[in-house]
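Re: weekly structure request thread

Next one in the queue (245 aa):
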Amino acid sequence: MKNTDKIDILGITLDKVDYEMALGKVEYFLKTEGNKTIVTPNAEIIMQAQSNQKLKNAINNSDMCFPDGIGVVIASKIIGNPLKGRTAGFDLMVKILQKVNQNGMSIYLLGGKPNVAEIAAKKISVMYPKIHISGTHDGYFAQSEEENVVDEINKSGADVVFVAMGAPKQEIFMANQRQNINCKLMMGVGGSLDVISGNTRRAPVFMQKVGLEWLYRLILEPTRIKRMSALPLFLIKVILGNKGK
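Done, posted below.
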């Protein structure tokens, strides 16, 4: 019997949720003790996980795993266990910021190039004045500096830590440090700080709605073509795997 709350795609377990259900979980996490982690893998990240066991474990051991990307939604239909839709990481981050603002809680921004997190923090402070920015740190630190970064986060007293270091670094960082970081929630947010800071533009809303954000990013950054090849390979792998069942 299939688990109606979960779906397995190429060995990655995702939660079948919409934004309302996701926020319900987030609200629960913010009220309870212990550090919870949220990841939002897309087709490219799921493909990375096929050859990266640390990434695969990090994703599957997270507290919530939301599908980001139209490719994952298409894959769920191929295997006959449709997701409720994509839960875009950026949009979920914005909804969490709204929730944090309502509760007057604090956040820490970790990731991006130098100064990106600081610029994003200033913009968040304007948009959500009740949020306390506990601290920021760029994502360019050596593994030998990781302990110092964790200490800095703990000293900040942040309730929520947004980790914007890209896959697989952010997922593995959260998995390795969740027992050491004293916050309520950590979420991997990829390039979201670049969007908030204004360094990167999101696709027009109509393209977001029809699942063509990937095409917009490709138009802006043609060098992404190699990365985009993961999507057709992902779908082929899903189709072949489904035929064997």
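The chain has one domain: 29-201. The first helix runs from residue 19 to 31.
Next request, please.
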